[in-house]
UniProtKB/TrEMBL annotation:
Protein name: pectinesterase
Major location (coarse): secreted
GO BP terms: cell wall modification; pectin catabolic process
Gene3D superfamilies to which the protein is assigned, alphabetical: Single-stranded right-handed beta-helix, Pectin lyase-like
Family designation: Belongs to the pectinesterase family.
Gene name, Swiss-Prot/TrEMBL: Vigan.03G026600
Organism lineage: Eukaryota, Viridiplantae, Streptophyta, Embryophyta, Tracheophyta
Keyword Hydrolase: yes
Ranges of residues in domain Pectinesterase catalytic: 8-136
Pathway membership, UniProt: Glycan metabolism; pectin degradation; 2-dehydro-3-deoxy-D-gluconate from pectin: step 1/5
Length: 148
């Protein structure tokens, strides 16, 4: 059996419910890390819902090449206007890839997001879809199917 060592995570049509915090500071939905620009890892959220109470940032950089993508996700008003944090990599944001494409809801207004958030159009986001990003070498298509 092959061991999959990649940390690529795709969450499709999931519901994320954020619970309020005991402080005034906003929490974080993700803390993804890549140690180099060649690292293929990342978090991809396709569809789904982000809601709850309190305030939350979409992510913070755990390592200098953090990559998180939200595509067609509904954001409630709990998402902070700036949305993202460089965390310990402030001043070195060029390696960080944070993307929002075709998201909706009151928390999806990107007019006050961090200036270094990446802009991708719908066709560019396809490279991070389940078929391209996760199943690039066809391993998902070749999984054995068990009948019940």
């Amino acid at each position: 059996m092959d061991v999959i060592t990649s940390k690529i995570v795709t969450l499709k049509n999931c519901r994320i419910n954020v619970l309020g915090r005991f402080s005034d500071s906003a929490g974080f939905v993700t803390a993804q890390g890549r140690s180099s620009s060649d690292d293929p890892d990342g978090f991809v959220f396709e569809g789904g819902f982000l809601g709850g109470n309190g305030k939350v940032n979409l992510g913070r950089a755990w390592q200098p090449y953090s990559r998180v993508i939200f595509h067609k996700t509904y954001f409630s008003s709990i998402v902070t206007p700036h949305g993202w944090s460089a965390w310990h990599y402030a001043g070195n944001e060029s390696g960080i890839t944070y993307v929002e494409v075709d998201c909706g809801g009151p928390g999806a207004d990107t007019s006050n997001r961090v200036s270094w958030m990446k802009k991708l159009n719908t066709s560019e986001i396809e490279q991070f879809s389940l078929a391209s990003f996760i199943n690039k070498d066809g391993w998902v298509d070749n999984l054995p199917i068990q009948s019940s």
